[in-house]
From TrEMBL:
SUPFAM superfamilies: Multidrug resistance efflux transporter EmrE. InterPro entries: AA-Vitamin_Transporters (IPR050638), EmrE-like (IPR037185). This is EamA/RhaT family transporter. It is found in: Membrane. Its main location: membrane. It comes from Dyella ginsengisoli. The keyword DNA damage does not apply. Keywords: Membrane, Transmembrane, Transmembrane helix. It comes from the Bacteria. The chain crosses the membrane at residues 31-50, 62-80, 92-110, 117-134, 146-163, 175-195, 207-226, 238-260, 266-282. It is a multi-pass membrane protein.
Amino acid sequence: MLFLCLSILCSVLVSVWLKLARRFGLDVSQMVAWNYLAAAALVAAVLHPSLAPLRQPDAPRVALLALALLLPAIFLALGTSVRHAGIVRSDVAQRLSLLVSLLAAFVWFGQVPTSRMLAGLALGLLALAAMVWRGHAASADGARSWLWPLVVFAGFGAIDILLKQVAAAGIPIAASLQAMFALALPVALGFALLARRRSGARFTARSLAGGLLLGLLNFGNILFYLRAHQALPHDPALVFAAMNLGVVTLGALVGVLAFGERLSRVNAAGLALAFVAIAVLARS
């Protein structure tokens, strides 16, 4: 369980660090770019991936290129969501994104849904709707507070579908991570250059350091999650449920207690429904 706890901690700390970025004068677009430099270097140093599978004729190059574009874009969306909607809503949206890949499994991959899966799906969609509910807020900031979590939800769901395609092609996880992070780096740098052109913000050593720390947390989340599956090879459902419920719980505690995020009664009901939905899906 130690690996699971470390993975949960790293996942929530990613959101916390994105939340604190502006307070420390850090540029999020630059942080996201340098995050991939650190993550790619750590994958090479710790996991020692063989890149031979990536050179095979049937390697899923289109899926890997799509991930290289989507990963930095959704990471930036997560940063924006954390800023406008808070850690609680953003982490719930990220964790409930598994509903997107579940729907894809039914529609595109021919998986036959069970009654329990459908119940979990319905509860998850209700939880998402309740978590982004903002009552009668009509201001631009009110719109951003529900729009960005939905972008995070859809984006991480699309990433999960692409990751499943890469895995189905027989690419080892370490090799796919190395390729994704290396390809995402120039894309993220391009986003950072566009942001600089728009805002005039210069590249700084402070944002570089913040991005390297973000990459360390991002890699730690992935590494410890993989180690948890290796430590509990016969309990994948336990790892899945504990990881998602742990992130939602810790994210909620940190958001409410450390950052003073407020949840309406509808939002709180959505948080409770998210717990139930994840538990139901884990038992499926």
